[in-house]
Amino acid sequence: MLDLQDLDLQLDQVAHKRKSLPEHQALAELAAEKSVVDRELVTADTEVSDLQREQKKADSDVEQVRQRKARNQQRLDSGQVTSPKDLENLQHEVGSLDRRISDLEDAELEVMEKLEAAEAVQADLRTRAEAFAGKQAELETSRDAALKELDEQRAQLGDKRATIAAELPEALVTQYQRLREHNGGIGAAPLVGKRCMGCRMELAPSDLNRIKAAAPDAVLRCEECGRILVRTPESAA
Question: Alpha-carbon distance 126 to 45, whole Å?
Fold first, then answer.
């Protein structure tokens, strides 16, 4: 019975180790950090896309005004305009177009600077996202290796437990398992001296006398905690 209890405690330890692997916590923290970066990357991608469209529009606006100025300048240079008034109007429009081009180029430059800054942020976030992916793969590999080793231990312990449990009365094993569920995983404990090692309480003299008088194969219970009590060479009873 104590061998069965020992194996069950070892199985409990394996189960606890499986749940509390450091890789589990590290992966959870990494996922939380990656989630933040992913959201920021979506925002950065949207901003870059918007600025790229804005830059294309700014480039197009500048080009349209330049072409219009070039046409007007060509008319001036060709001598086709002979009317003084028309000539004055055309020269005035060319001057206005020069100022318009300057304003549009300033706006175009501002958009380019914003786009460069946004692309730098986007590139940094992508680098961080890729680093997260690499770290995640490393942690998952380490976790899977640890789980495999623990599963192998669990299988070996389970085989030993099944062998021992098969040698005990089925009703006793059922009782033991029920006691384990209600007593923190310990359903059977040795009697060392006068003390039950399950609850660490010393037994009363009357209980010790009862244990002494019990048959060797009798199922004994601790009066304090209710666990199955197993006599050992160190028992006082």
Answer: 10
Alpha-carbon distance of 222 to 104, in angstroms, equals 92
Please give the single-letter amino acid code of residue 70: A
**What CA–CA distance (Å, rounded) separates 93 from 86?**
10
Say if residues 31 and 129 touch (Cβ distance below 8 Å): no
pLDDT tens-digit series, residues 143-180: 999 999 999 999 999 999 999 999 999 999 999 999 99
Residues 6 or more apart from 223 whose CB is under 8 A from it? 203, 204, 207
Closest CA to 26 of 127, 146, 123, 122: 146
Burial of 227 (0-12, 13-18, 19+ CB in 10 A): buried
The residue among 197, 178, 206 whose CA lies nearest residue 235 is: 197
